[in-house]
Amino acid sequence: MIYKRGKSGIYSYRFRFAGRMIHESARTKSKTLAREAERQRRRELEERINNIKKRELPPSLERAAVDWQKSRSGIAARTLDIARVAIDHLLPAFGPKLLCDITYQQIADYQRIRQQSGAQGRTVNIEIITLRQILKSYDQWLPLAGKVRMLRERKDVAKALTPGQERALLAATAEADSACHTATVLALNTAMRKDEIRLLRWEQIDLEKRTLTVGHSKTEAGRGRLITLNLPAFEAIVRWAGRFPSVKPCDYVFPWCENRQIDLSRPTKGWRTAWRTALRRAGFHCRFHDLRVTCITKLAESQTSDMTIMAIAGHVSKHMLEHYSRIRVEAKRAALDAIARPVLDAGVHQNVHQIESGDSGVSIKSLN
């Protein structure tokens, strides 16, 4: 039953459902809309009492990706940037497709095409992980679980520079750009990550105590760690500070600069152009992150304890320490030569002792 109630002209509807009287306002002055509101309300109650849910098709990946990114509040900016780049690669292949129409074979084809284009296994895996997270948020991953296989990832991507490469790079960055050179010296002598250096503020540096406190970091263990500045790092910071005699504590150490205009309140975007120029001059290729690997490797080679290295580098586990520490061939040779030297200096060959004690069936004559 539809009727007007009072002098307001607003329609209401009234009907009996499951032994109860439903009496509600339609919130409209249109009789047609009020009649439609009554029908919708009846259907809603019928679906609810019969536990019937209206099925909706999942959105396209393009729309789902936008909603998924908006829902990720409290996520680190770097993590969001990685996901954004991954989505940019996914959209050309899957953007118009409904989430329910994405198959494991299409994902396998995408992985193959990305590899053929030169993308590394780690990069493609990050993209597939991002796709999986979006599908999971709409309960569309279960049909694909167990069928999608991740690609093999290279474990030797990170590398430590040799002493010769290190000297060549320092000379090349000094010629290319002073900001890039200062950042390079810091990375080689503090094991700081690129963004930890890029977002560094003057208030984080204590020149009297020759210490530096890391601010923004990729990991919780890295944030707020205290690093002592050795002589090369300290001298580089002092030289760089001389360029900005009137900075405030909250200003960035490496400020934004464009068209010779400097804004100390904004951080630099990076040193990409200067870095590439320096690598061309140095005559070899490496990533800026390899400077951190080089520093950690040198610490490991100098017999520094694991706990000290983790405190400097900001690692969470020994697994990550093993991943970053690339003991070089020269250091391995020197270590093995060191344990043999005392015996050799005494004029006795280790193999002689082994043979005399019966540990080997090889004759002394065959060794000569």
How many independent structural domains? 4
Specify the number of helices. Answer: 16
N- to C-terminal separation?
Answer: 113 Å
Indicate the CATH class of the largest domain. Answer: Mainly Alpha
CATH topology of the largest domain: hpI Integrase, Chain A
Number-wise, the strands total 8
| CATH homolog superfamily of the largest domain | Intergrase catalytic core
Strand order of the largest sheet: 1-2-3
Query: Outline, from the CA principal axes?
Result: elongated
CATH architecture tag of the largest domain: Orthogonal Bundle
Rg, please? Answer: 33 Å
Low-confidence regions: 348-357, 359-368
Helix content: 40-55%
The SSE string, one letter per element, is EEEHHHHHHHHEEEHEEHHHHHHH
Structural class: mainly alpha
Strand-residue proportion: 5-15%
Question: Major sheet: size, sense and barrel closure?
Answer: 3 strands, antiparallel
**Mean pLDDT across every amino acid position:** 84
Overview of the molecule:
The chain has 368 residues and is mainly alpha-helical. The chain folds into four domains: 2-49; 61-144, DNA polymerase, domain 1, CATH 1.10.150; 163-324, Intergrase catalytic core (hpI Integrase, Chain A, Orthogonal Bundle), CATH 1.10.443; 328-368, no CATH class. The protein has 16 helices and eight strands. It has helices at 31-49, 61-70, 77-94, 104-116, 121-137, 163-176, 178-190, 194-198, 231-241, 272-282, 289-301, 306-313, 318-324, 329-345, 350-356, 364-367, and strands at 2-4, 11-17, 20-25, 205-206, 211-213, 226-228, 255-258, 261-267. It has a three-stranded antiparallel sheet with strand order 1-2-3, covered by helices on one side. Strands 4-5-6 form a three-stranded antiparallel sheet, with no helix packed on it. A two-stranded antiparallel sheet has the order 7-8. A hairpin with a 2-residue loop joins strand 2 (11-17) and strand 3 (20-25). It is elongated. Mean pLDDT is 84; it is low at 348-357 and 359-368.
